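Regression test case RT-17, inverse folding.

Input:
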């Protein structure tokens, strides 16, 4: 799933992965470092990857001579690297620090009025590749919601954004961002998917006409980071305020766009959305899960929306088919996918939205 990214380094190592409530894994593996991801390919178990943006702690344990990484209660220890230990930890630290600095610069560009303390608070609440409640960001500074919208939503997208806001609980709106890096060919392709879809329906954008905020998506090293921004809209029953078990995801970067509709929760969990006190945490669980899978896919859409026969039968999508079989969370999101409405025109988009929501059974 990472073959589109430029590889920084690779080395042979031992690994030990501890996941709360899960099976502990360990053994020899090949470790591959990319600018934004770390992949571990064990000799005797399923390969896995960690996004560097998700890592909360990165240290070298001199006593055990191990590189220690932690995220969301999980711990990954890399050992038996031998003479490459210093190089491995240096390269990993450089990639990790560089990514955090680039994300901080992107946030500063998006929200230039924040002071250093506020910027750190936003970075903690909305790290790159994660989604955060816009209402909580407003507590840090009340100008943040309006500025995020102004940055991401141009006059072409505004009717779609306003309609989704009208159909949703605005107090439960989520937002997030990801830096588009110069080597990030897979994200460029993911953005182009919507461009191509729009062109197929007679839109103005054509394949390859991918631009971000009026500039080319692939940027020069040292330039101001360009970002993919998105919003999650938890939808309500038409004419009421009761939450549906449906969320709309709108990515707001690129010439071509589409709105993706997914279930927030499994049917067994869905009643929590009707609990006044529990609804916010229920929405958070669903949004976090979907965002986590999007991050795992580097925000590719096709592994989520392609039908099974095309995913399994088209050799171009063979790796997606393998991933959908092996990664439980990807299978869940594919099952939660309800449809996408393409931005060919506002009237056509709204008709698609109505059809998707009518076919969804909460």
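Golden output:
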């Amino acid at each position: 799933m990472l073959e589109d990214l430029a590889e920084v380094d690779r080395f042979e190592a031992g690994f030990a992965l501890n996941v709360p409530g899960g099976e502990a894994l360990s053994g020899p593996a090949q470790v591959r470092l990319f600018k934004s991801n770390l992949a571990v390919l064990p000799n005797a178990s399923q390969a896995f990857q960690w996004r560097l943006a998700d890592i909360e702690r990165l240290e070298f344990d001199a006593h055990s001579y191990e590189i220690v990484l932690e995220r969301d209660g999980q711990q990954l220890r890399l050992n038996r690297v031998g003479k490459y230990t210093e190089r491995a930890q240096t390269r990993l630290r450089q990639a990790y620090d560089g990514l955090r600095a680039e994300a901080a610069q992107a946030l500063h560009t998006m929200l230039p009025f924040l002071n250093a303390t506020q910027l750190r608070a936003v970075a903690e609440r909305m790290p790159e590749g994660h989604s955060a409640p816009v209402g909580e960001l407003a507590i840090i500074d009340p100008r943040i919601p309006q500025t995020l919208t102004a940055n991401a939503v141009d006059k072409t997208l505004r009717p779609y954004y306003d309609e989704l806001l009208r159909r949703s609980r605005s107090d439960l709106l989520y937002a997030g961002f990801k830096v588009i890096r110069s080597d990030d060919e897979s994200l460029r392709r993911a953005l182009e998917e919507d461009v191509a879809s729009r062109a197929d329906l007679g839109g103005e954008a054509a394949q390859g006409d991918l631009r971000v905020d009026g500039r080319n998506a692939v940027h020069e090293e040292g330039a101001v980071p360009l970002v993919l921004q998105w919003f999650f809209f938890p939808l309500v029953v038409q004419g009421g305020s009761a939450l549906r078990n449906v969320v709309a995801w709108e990515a707001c970067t690129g010439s071509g766009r589409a709105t993706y509709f997914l279930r927030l929760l499994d049917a067994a969990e869905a009643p929590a959305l009707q609990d006044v006190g529990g609804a916010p945490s229920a929405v958070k669980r669903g949004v976090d899960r979907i965002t986590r899978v999007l991050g795992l896919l580097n925000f590719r859409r096709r592994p989520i929306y392609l039908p099974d026969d095309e995913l399994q039968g088209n050799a171009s999508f063979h790796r997606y088919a393998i991933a959908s079989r092996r990664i439980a969370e990807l299978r869940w999101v594919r099952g939660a996918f309800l449809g996408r409405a393409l931005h060919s025109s506002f009237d056509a988009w709204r008709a698609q939205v109505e059809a998707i929501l009518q076919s969804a059974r909460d």
